[in-house]
């Protein structure tokens, strides 16, 4: 199921990425700060990831799997992780090679969003965790990405991606970031919630990735 979900979500984000270019006559100064923050921090990679997967096939009890992964190398500009352990142990250890890596999945999309010709628009402000943040949006063909940005520093506080394929699946991925003086503006965790609507494969899936021990690439 995890490998299947990854393939579908990768297709969705890649499609979005390929259609997210446009032309903005005036670049928002807050977005300029966000782009500077992104360029400053995009060479860092999480050394460790803990992934908690809750899978509930229709009419069946929830299955829980905990996966610990460690950064191994970069491959085609994306991080590759080694699975250290899985709880409960898998019946076939080779299944560990099919672990979902949503962080890597988002790299092409982020490169597009923080590029020079992204079709971005500021849609207003919102209070999040007691702080008023600027909200930016990318939207295309039923796919949507929103970013909550500190207007003073350009730091990302939250990213929410929503997408759907009719009669196949719908999902939302919410990513929270570390912020504040002395901290790098990098993801802390990401929560993915997916509803699979394929006949005979219907299920609800929730995946929480927690990132730690960030290292800077050469």
Lateral arrangement of strands in the main beta sheet: 3-2-1-10-9-8-7-6-5-4
Number of helices: 4
Estimate the strand proportion. over 45%
Rg over CA atoms: 18 Å
Globally, the shape reads: globular
Signal peptide: 1-22
Keywords: Signal
Question: Could you give a quick summary of the protein structure above?
Answer:
The chain is α+β, with helices and mostly antiparallel strands. The chain contains 4 helices and 10 strands. Helix 1 runs parallel beside helix 4 (107-113).
SSE layout and pairing:
Blueprint: H1 2-18, H2 29-41, E1 44-57, E2 63-75, E3 78-87, H3 102-105, H4 107-113, E4 121-128, E5 131-140, E6 143-149, E7 156-165, E8 169-177, E9 187-196, E10 203-216
Task: Describe what this molecule looks like in 3D.
Helices cover 19% and strands 48% of the residues. With 218 residues, it is an alpha+beta fold. It is built from 4 helices and 10 strands, in the order ααβββααβββββββ. The protein has a 10-stranded antiparallel β-sheet with strand order 3-2-1-10-9-8-7-6-5-4.
List keywords for this structure.
10 strands; 218 residues; 19% helix; alpha+beta; 4 helices; globular
């Amino acid at each position: 199921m995890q490998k299947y979900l990854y393939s579908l979500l990768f297709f969705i984000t890649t499609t979005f990425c390929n259609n997210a270019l446009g032309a903005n006559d005036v670049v928002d100064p807050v977005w300029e700060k966000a782009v500077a923050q992104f360029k400053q921090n995009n060479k860092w990679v999480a050394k460790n990831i803990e992934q908690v997967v809750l899978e509930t096939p229709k009419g069946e009890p929830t299955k829980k799997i905990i996966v610990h992964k460690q950064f191994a190398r970069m491959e085609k500009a994306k991080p590759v992780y080694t699975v250290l352990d899985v709880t409960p142990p898998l019946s076939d250890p080779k299944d560990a090679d099919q672990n979902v890596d949503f962080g890597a999945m988002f790299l092409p999309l982020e490169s597009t969003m923080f590029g020079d010709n992204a079709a971005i628009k500021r849609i207003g402000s919102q209070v999040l965790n007691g702080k008023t943040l600027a909200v930016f949006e990318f939207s295309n063909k039923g796919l949507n990405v929103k970013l909550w940005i500190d207007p003073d520093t350009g730091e990302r506080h939250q990213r929410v991606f929503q997408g759907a394929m009719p009669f196949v699946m719908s999902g939302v991925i919410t990513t929270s970031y570390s912020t504040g003086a002395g901290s790098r503006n990098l993801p802390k965790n990401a929560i993915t919630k997916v509803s699979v609507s394929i006949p005979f494969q219907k299920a609800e899936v929730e995946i929480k990735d927690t990132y730690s021990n960030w290292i800077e690439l050469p």
